[in-house]
Structure formats: structure tokens, C-alpha cells
Design the sequence.
């Protein structure tokens, strides 16, 4: 229970109708979740306008409303606060309602197109191994000291973020590691959070359905660093074309990591095999269990973050060398007849290229690479032909299939992918809508030693079709087929 006056601390409002001296039981931005005594924040969304649900929120028991436009009729029994930006206001009131938990632990945010889950998860695993109590907010799952809390988003809404951070604080956490998606930044989900540091991974093609242009996507990511306080660190990947741009206007301490260019934290790949990476990292030679050049970047980013958080170098490297990262990222199994299956969450052109070039670099002979890949529905359509093209360029055979069709026709998504296939490669490509059949076909086509990459869904244990999530697990599918490959 909190007083309205406490909850609106720091909120710039242009008008208050009513008294700030009322008790608020909960905050909600969805009228359907309003409980009696709540404050309802009306946010203009991408589909509907929350202002249209103010009446419903009041019917459900809201006693205070934050909005950008006052309704035509207001009732004296409900407090109304007018603000310029309700999404920003939501971040402020959510943080205040939970007593600003981000200020009570060291919160590190990770942003970029690919690698966020991997870096945030490795940081969480590393810091737990170093003996700290920690929390994690990630695409795969949220965790507080080992307790798993299912996640619905890469970065949850402001109420959920602050609620989870408050639970971390109550559980004695010293650190919180979270992914910061570009959607979250532009929708102000991270407003009013106090970060101890921010990490940039890379910026490549994704989410242009939402941001429309690459520049707007870039600026959304950059806004995270622009908002960091001056006592935080801002760590960037200096090998990424936009690495320096990200930190251009930050007040935080600027630090960098890289394999190729000048950087504060440097590493060199000495060996890159299926069993792992040998890196010379900050002058030390260390074996890691993670595979591929992109993971050299992730490991270096994690190492640099740990150094910026003043951890002991030897302990960090020893612990990091044991870690395997997040579920569904370059996970592999071998069939009795030595066919290798890899499940990876590559769902952007760059990730597909990275994972396939890694497979290419580390395969021993001329084993065939068979890729099973689809693209998500209700997501960036422009990446579809590029992902298919990239898959074809780096594979011997490609099976185009469904990812999460969501509300789209899967056959149409596949058609859009087919447009990226070079005519000369067409005969090495087959389209199979049913993902189960697609994986089965890949297994039937594989000879001993061949490598099957099943890309795009990683840890996801469902396939979303028209709002229904049906159980589907790429690794389970491979395991079932592999039993018979003798
Ligand atoms: C496109 C998008 O990002 N949408 C997010 C956004 O919802 P929205 O703006 O579409 O909401 P809306 O449906 O237009 O509704 C507007 C407002 O009216 C309210 N409302 C609506 C109906 C009603 O009956 N009553 C009511 O009060 C809603 O609660 C909302 O406040 O704000 C919601 C609350 O934070 C999010 O749950 C929702 O995520 C949707 C479900 C989603 O799928 N988002 C994906 C694309 C996403 O965010 N992905 C990123 C990861 C991307 C990546 O890097 O890979 C993520 O962070 O997960
Ligand atoms: N540093 C990296 N650079 C490029 N590609 C990477 C990197 N790290 C991981 N990948 C590729 O991207 C995929 C997704 O990785 P990860 O889940 O860590 O990214 P993410 O940024 O969390 O993605 P999302 O936007 O869905 O949350 C991996 O399965 C791998 O194929
Ligand atoms: N966080 C990403 C996940 C994409 C995963 C892929 N399997 C898909 O459904 O497109 C998104 O929401 O765009
Ligand atoms: Mg993620």
C-alpha cells in the first residue's frame, strides 16, 4: 500500500484533479488487470489507445488515472493526473510504487541485436559462481537466486520489471542483469531505472517492421546509453560499425571490448573447435566451453563487465571457462551414426551467418551442412529473403519451414523466404510447412558425419499459431529422430 503523493514523486504532471492523499493498492496499465484501489495509467499503444479504456478501468475499481488527454467527463471520485507522456509516467510510478529497487542493487543492462541473452545469462551464472546473490531478466527466463520465473518478453513491462527487481532486493541480491530490447527502450519500459552499467553487443538487421528504418532502430538502442548516469559504465563492442556511435552522447564512463580494433579489453582467438574456444583474453590463455567467434565477443563482453564491476581477474576467468550460457544457443547432440544436430536461436540474418560460418570453420572434413530454417510471423518481413539467402550460401541443403507463424499464413512466409534463394541453389532447397516433417526430412537426408542446423527457435518449447502456443521443441524433435539414426 502506497500513498499517491509518494508514487508520483518526480513525476512532471500538468494538472492534478483530486487529492494526492489517497492510498493506492496497485498500478495497472491494462484496464482488465485493474483491482479496486488501483492507479490506471492510460498508454497509447501500437494497436489501441489505453485512453479508450479509462471508463472500464474505473468500473473495475481504479481510483486514480494518469493520462495524456483528460476524458470529456471526469468524476470527482477519481483522481486525474495529466502528463505529457504516459509511458514515461508509467516507468516513474512503477519504480516509485516498488520503492525504486534498481537503486538498491547493481543493475546491468545488455542491449544489441544479438547476444543479449547470452551475455546476461553468462553474467548471472558468473556472479552466482563468484558467490553473489543475483537476478536475471531474459528472453529465456527470469531468475532470482536460482528460482525460475517464466518470462514473456525479452524486457518485461515497467510494472513487472520493478516487481521483479523488488523481489531481487528482498532476496538480498547484489546484482541484477537484464536484457534491454529496442522495443523496451522505445516504449519506455526502462524509464526511471538506475543502471550501474550498460553493455552493447552489436547492431544488425532486425525489427524493421517496428522501427521502420535502421537509423531509428539504431537511435532506439543509443537512447539506452544516452540515459545512463555519469557514475555508470557504458561498455561497447569496438569492432561493431556502430559501437562508437552508441556511446557518442553518454554521460557514463566509456569502455570498449574488441577482437580486431583498439579496445580497453582485448581478446584473440587461438583455437575455435566444436568443443570450445581457446582465447587469449586480456593477456591470459583460457579454454572456454562456448563455441564460435560470436561467443568470443560474448565472453569478452562478460569478462570486461566483470572487470568494470571490480571482480578478481583470475576468479572470473576460472569461473567463465566452465560456463555454457543460455539454453538453445548452439546446443548440439550426436546421433549413433555420428550425424550432428545443432539447435540455435539464430533468427536474424547476422545470427544465421554467424552460426553457419562457425559450423563451416570448425567442421573437420567436407561433411554436408543441412539447415532447417523458418521466419517468425508478425515480425520484420524484410529479413525473410535475406535469412533464406544466407542459409543457402552457407549450407549444402536447406529446408525452409515454419517458425512461429503467429497470425500469418505460413505458406506465404515461406514464399517470401524463397524469394531470397538463388535460382542455382533451388534444387538444393525444399519447402516443408510442418516443422516436425522438416526436421525429420533433414535427418533422412543426412549421412554419417553430416551436420544439421535447426535455426530460429532455440530454447522455445512451443510453436505459436494464431494465438495458440502448441508444444514444440527443436531439441526434442532431433532427439526423437536421432534415436533411429544407427
Ligand atoms: C508491439 C509491442 O511491442 N507491443 C507491446 C506493447 O503493447 P501495445 O502498445 O501493442 O498495446 P496495445 O494493445 O496497443 O494497448 C495499448 C494500451 O491499452 C491497454 N488496454 C488494451 C486493451 C484493453 O482492454 N484495456 C487496456 O487497458 C493496454 O494494456 C496498453 O497499455 O506494450 C505491451 C506492454 O509492455 C507489450 O506486452 C506489448 O508486447 C507485445 C505483446 C509483443 O509481442 N512485443 C514484442 C514485439 C516485443 O516487445 N519484443 C521484444 C523483444 C524483441 C527482440 O529484441 O528480440 C521484447 O522485449 O520482448
Ligand atoms: N555476439 C553475437 N553476435 C552475433 N550473433 C550472435 C551473438 N551472440 C549470439 N548470436 C547469435 O544470435 C542468436 C541469439 O542469441 P541471443 O539469444 O544471445 O541474442 P538476443 O540478443 O538475446 O536475442 P533476442 O533479441 O531474441 O532477445 C544465437 O543463437 C546466435 O546464433
Ligand atoms: N524476440 C524475438 C524472438 C524471435 C524468435 C523467432 N522464433 C520468431 O518467432 O520470430 C522477437 O520477438 O522478434
Ligand atoms: Mg534475448
Sequence:
Amino acid at each position: 500500500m502506497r500513498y499517491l503523493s509518494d508514487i508520483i514523486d518526480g513525476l512532471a504532471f500538468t494538472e492534478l484533479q483530486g487529492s494526492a492523499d489517497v492510498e493506492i493498492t496497485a498500478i495497472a496499465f491494462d484496464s482488465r488487470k485493474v483491482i479496486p484501489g488501483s492507479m490506471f495509467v492510460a498508454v497509447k499503444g501500437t494497436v489501441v489507445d489505453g485512453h479508450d479504456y479509462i471508463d472500464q478501468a474505473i468500473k473495475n475499481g481504479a481510483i486514480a488515472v494518469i493520462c495524456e488527454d483528460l476524458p470529456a467527463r471526469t468524476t470527482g471520485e477519481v483522481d486525474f493526473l495529466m502528463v505529457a507522456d504516459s509511458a514515461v509516467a508509467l516507468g516513474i510510478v512503477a519504480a516509485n510504487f516498488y520503492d525504486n529497487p534498481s537503486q538498491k542493487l547493481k543493475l546491468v543492462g545488455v542491449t544489441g541485436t544479438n547476444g543479449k541473452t547470452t551475455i546476461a545469462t553468462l553474467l548471472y551464472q558468473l556472479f552466482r559462481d563468484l558467490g553473489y546473490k543475483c537476478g536475471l531478466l531474459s528472453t529465456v527466463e527470469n531468475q532470482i537466486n536460482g528460482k525460475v520465473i517464466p518470462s514473456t518478453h525479452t524486457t518485461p513491462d515497467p510494472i513487472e520489471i520493478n516487481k521483479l527487481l523488488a523481489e531481487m532486493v528482498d532476496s538480498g541480491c547484489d546484482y541484477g542483469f537484464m536484457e534491454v530490447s529496442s522495443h523496451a527502450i522505445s516504449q519506455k519500459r526502462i524509464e526511471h531505472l538506475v543502471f550501474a552499467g550498460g553493455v552493447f553487443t552489436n547492431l544488425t538487421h532486425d525489427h524493421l517492421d517496428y522501427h521502420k528504418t535502421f537509423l531509428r532502430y539504431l537511435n532506439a538502442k543509443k537512447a539506452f546509453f544516452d540515459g545512463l548516469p555519469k557514475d555508470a559504465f557504458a561498455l561497447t563492442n569496438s569492432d561493431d560499425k556502430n559501437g562508437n556511435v552508441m556511446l557518442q552522447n553518454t554521460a557514463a564512463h566509456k569502455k570498449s571490448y574488441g577482437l580486431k580494433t583498439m579496445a580497453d579489453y582485448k581478446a584473440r582467438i587461438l583455437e575455435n573447435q566444436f568443443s570450445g574456444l581457446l582465447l587469449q583474453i586480456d593477456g591470459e590463455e583460457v579454454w572456454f566451453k562456448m563455441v564460435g567467434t560470436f561467443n568470443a565477443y560474448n565472453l569478452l563482453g562478460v569478462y570486461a563487465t566483470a572487470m568494470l564491476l571490480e571482480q578478481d581477474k583470475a576468479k572470473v576467468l576460472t569461473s567463465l571457462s566452465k560456463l555454457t550460457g543460455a539454453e538453445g544457443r548452439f546446443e548440439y547432440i550426436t546421433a549413433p551414426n555420428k550425424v550432428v544436430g545443432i539447435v540455435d536461436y539464430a533468427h536474424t540474418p547476422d545470427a544465421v551467418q554467424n552460426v553457419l560460418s562457425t559450423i563451416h570453420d570448425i567442421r573437420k572434413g567436407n561433411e554436408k551442412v543441412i539447415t532447417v530454417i523458418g521466419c517468425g510471423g508478425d515480425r520484420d518481413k524484410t529479413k525473410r529473403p535475406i535469412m533464406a539467402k544466407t542459409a543457402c550460401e552457407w549450407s549444402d541443403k536447406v529446408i525452409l519451414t515454419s517458425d512461429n507463424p503467429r497470425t500469418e499464413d505460413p505458406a506465404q512466409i515461406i514464399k517470401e523466404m524463397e524469394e531470397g534463394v538463388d535460382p542455382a541453389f533451388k534444387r538444393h532447397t525444399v519447402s516443408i510447412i510442418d516443422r516436425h516433417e522438416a526436421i525429420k526430412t533433414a535427418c533422412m537426408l543426412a549421412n554419417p558425419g553430416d551436420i544439421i542446423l535447426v535455426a530460429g527457435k532455440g530454447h522455445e518449447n512451443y510453436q505459436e499459431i494464431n494465438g495458440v502456443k502448441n508444444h514444440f521443441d527443436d531439441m526434442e524433435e532431433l532427439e526423437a529422430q536421432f534415436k533411429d539414426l544407427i
Remarks:
- The longest helix spans residues 293-308.
- DSSP finds 16 helices and 26 strands in the chain.
- The chain has three domains: 2-98, 101-321, 331-484.
